[in-house]
Design brief:
The complex is a heterodimer of chains A (293) and B (341).
Chain A lengths: L1 H6 L2 H28 L4 H4 L7 H4 L1 H7 L6 H9 L2 H32 L3 H15 L3 H14 L5 H26 L2 H9 L4 H9 L4 H17 L2 H6 L7 H15 L2 H35 L2
Helix pairs in contact in A: 6-16, 7-10, 7-13, 8-10, 10-13, 11-12, 13-16, 15-16
Chain B lengths: L2 H30 L1 E2 L5 E8 L2 E8 L1 H10 L4 E2 L3 H4 L6 H10 L3 H8 L3 H33 L2 H16 L2 H12 L4 H10 L10 H29 L3 H9 L4 H29 L3 H5 L9 H9 L6 H33 L1
Antiparallel strand pairs in B: 1-4, 2-3
């Protein structure tokens, strides 16, 4: 590949570099811009007079005496109690990931090992469920949840997210388990293990790469969800994303849109770290379905 | 694997999906066939010193009792599907007759809430999906040509728009194109029009939503194509080169055929995801200019009066839409896997 790169004509090389630079700016600049702006006051981040104000922090200096301010963060985290939403998000993600993976590994393993036709039908139905927008299910949940008085609580949202997550988790783990040689658990069963013992002692020790990758995507689904959590959770139990959406309604009128900006940056930061540490797993997970066709 | 073992392994996740996906679908269908009870009106006669007056009042008790007795509401059949907020069967005929041309008809049709949402959802899906594939491919080729050391960081930043919460990603863009934001200022300067505002213009709003859509999903296409490019058979490429294939011919006859199956995969995932477009409309506060099917359901469910039946009817129509969109893929999967199984 290296000598091929050297042969590339200069014009083509220039075009490729321009494409790369443009894309990098488009992909990364908005995040850094918002991060920078979150330490300014609204008059700077949204400046009608002069856009360079956000760079120099003119209004921020005038209002707070310094070019950087953490007003947005203290307003969001302390005054508007964003820490509660952060805690709720932590709980939701933790439980959704654990439960989805427990159910998903069992199901995915069975689907990968069964040779009967119903396993295929099971996967096909899961694919149909995966395609349905989650919000279409919400109007089915609400009347029942109201009647049973379980609307608004975190466990309800966790169970719903686990169920919505299942089709995807099953498909992904199914394809990972297909890659684990069948001889492994079969030889254990020849030696006298039951199916579950074979799974417990032979498959579980080797399944972690696939489980971690699937877990990452379960986490992202729970963390990023807006449609379900916004409709099912009570105001006190809101997770971060619906909380940010509710900032938009209340704070824009109060002139405190900077709370929302600070909350957005706070919510994006963990995702940044996640991608940084698990980039390899994310890439392999995204391509897992594709490469197998 | 034995039937019984399979059953016990699959049971937990099957129960979860049965209870929280399958039953809700049934419940949504049932709900969409029922309408909320009308309030029971009674006539009350108030007699005072100046004679008697008749007034109508709501019989709260009777209404509550009726609602208690039949919590689903009264059976309405397909009434909700046909009303003005959904398929508007009664309105379409006259609209067609009044319209002077097809364009005029479509323009008028877009005033009806359901068709407005459907129009935007379909436009979004069929504009964003191909653009995503094209941009994803271009970025993949560009990253693949970069030096190996900088590819890691390149991939890291490329992943950001896709991995970040859709609501947050679209908010970040929205704040930048706000009339007082940096992109908004740049746009006004470019167009040389100080009153230009994305928020106030339907065309610009649609364009902005689609720009967001491509920005958000191009990384997915990029990653899949990039992984595909790593597995292009170098022997075939070399053979083509020895046979005198130009750079373009190598791409045309070796690389593209290799990536074609990936394209179907990307297109499938993108069709599914773009059809549910929802968060950017909330973030961009765009509902005056563009609504989507998912947004319509959200709007019916939220707010003071929860219109469950109306939301349920839209949900059923959306599910039918997804089914139509997916049917070719499902048939293909059925054939492929059916052979393998």
């Amino acid at each position: 590949m290296a000598n091929q790169a050297q042969k590339r004509p200069a014009a083509l090389q220039a075009i490729l570099v321009i494409i790369l630079i443009t894309w990098m700016i488009a992909a990364a600049f908005p995040f850094f811009w918002t991060l920078w702006g979150s330490f300014k006051v609204e008059g700077d981040f949204f400046s009608l007079a002069d856009w360079t104000n956000v760079l120099t922090g003119e209004m921020t200096t005038r209002e707070t005496g310094d070019a950087f301010t953490t007003q947005g963060y203290s307003g969001a985290w302390v005054q508007e109690e964003f820490w509660k939403a952060a805690w709720n998000s932590t709980l939701v993600c933790l439980f959704v990931v654990t439960i989805s993976l427990t159910l998903g590994t069992l199901g995915g393993y069975a689907l990968a090992r069964s040779t009967y036709r119903y396993a295929f039908w099971f996967l096909l139905i899961a694919l149909i469920f995966r395609a349905m927008p989650p919000i279409t299910l919400v109007s089915g949940y609400l009347p029942v949840f109201f009647q049973w008085n379980i609307w608004g609580y975190l466990p309800t949202a966790i169970i719903v997210l686990v169920a919505i997550n299942q089709p995807f988790t099953l498909w992904m783990l199914h394809s990972f388990f297909k890659n684990i040689p069948q001889d492994l658990d079969e030889s254990a069963m020849v030696d006298g293990c039951t199916r579950f013992q074979a799974f417990r002692h032979v498959i579980i020790p080797v399944m972690w790469p696939g489980v971690i990758t699937t877990g990452l995507f379960s986490f992202l689904l729970a963390y990023n969800d807006f449609a379900v959590t916004a409709m099912i959770l009570d105001k006190q139990n809101q997770t971060m994303v619906p909380k940010i959406a509710s900032f938009l309604g209340t704070t824009q009128t109060k002139g405190n849109v900077m709370f929302a900006v600070a909350a957005v940056v706070s919510t994006t930061a963990p995702l940044f770290l996640l991608i940084m540490f698990f980039q390899r797993q994310i890439v392999s997970g995204l391509t897992a379905g594709a490469v197998k066709g | 694997m034995k039937h019984s073992a399979f059953f016990w392994f699959v049971l937990p996740s099957a129960v979860a999906m049965l209870l929280f996906i399958f039953f809700p679908i049934v419940s949504v269908v049932v709900q969409s066939l029922h309408a909320a009870h009308e309030q029971v009106i009674i006539e009350v006669e108030n007699c005072g010193p100046f004679g008697c007056t008749k007034a109508t009042a709501i019989d709260q008790e009777a209404t509550a009792a009726l609602r208690e007795e039949q919590p689903l509401g009264r059976f309405a059949g397909l009434e909700i599907y046909k009303d003005r907020n959904h398929l508007a069967t009664a309105q379409i005929g006259p609209l067609w007759e009044q319209s002077t041309s097809i364009g005029d008809f479509i323009g008028k049709l877009m005033n009806l809430p359901f068709y407005k949402a459907l129009g935007f959802t379909l436009t979004f899906t069929f504009v964003v999906t191909p653009l995503t594939i094209i941009f994803g491919f271009i970025i993949a080729v560009a990253v693949n040509s970069a030096a190996r050391v900088i590819r890691g960081p390149l991939i890291f930043f490329s992943l950001l728009p896709m991995m970040v919460t859709p609501l947050i990603g679209s908010l970040i863009l929205f704040w930048m194109v706000d009339a007082r934001g940096i992109l908004g200022t740049a746009l006004r300067w470019l167009a040389d029009d100080p009153s230009l505002s994305v928020k106030a213009d339907t065309g610009l709003m649609w364009a902005m939503l689609m720009v967001y859509g491509v920005w958000h999903s191009a990384p997915f296409a990029f990653i899949v194509y990039y992984a595909g490019l790593q597995t292009v058979n170098t022997d075939t490429l070399e053979a083509a080169r020895i046979d005198g294939a130009s750079r373009w011919q190598q791409i045309r006859h070796v690389v593209i055929p290799h990536l074609l199956p990936l394209t179907t995969f990307i297109a499938l995932m993108q069709l599914m995801d773009n059809f549910r477009v929802f968060e950017p409309i909330v973030s961009f506060n765009a509902s005056a200019h563009a609504t989507s099917l998912s947004w319509t359901i959200y709007n019916d469910l939220g707010g003071e009066t929860q219109q469950l039946s109306s939301a349920a009817a839209t949900s059923v129509l959306t599910i039918i839409g997804v089914a139509i969109l997916l049917s070719p893929v499902l048939i293909r999967t059925y054939r492929d896997y059916g052979k393998a199984a």
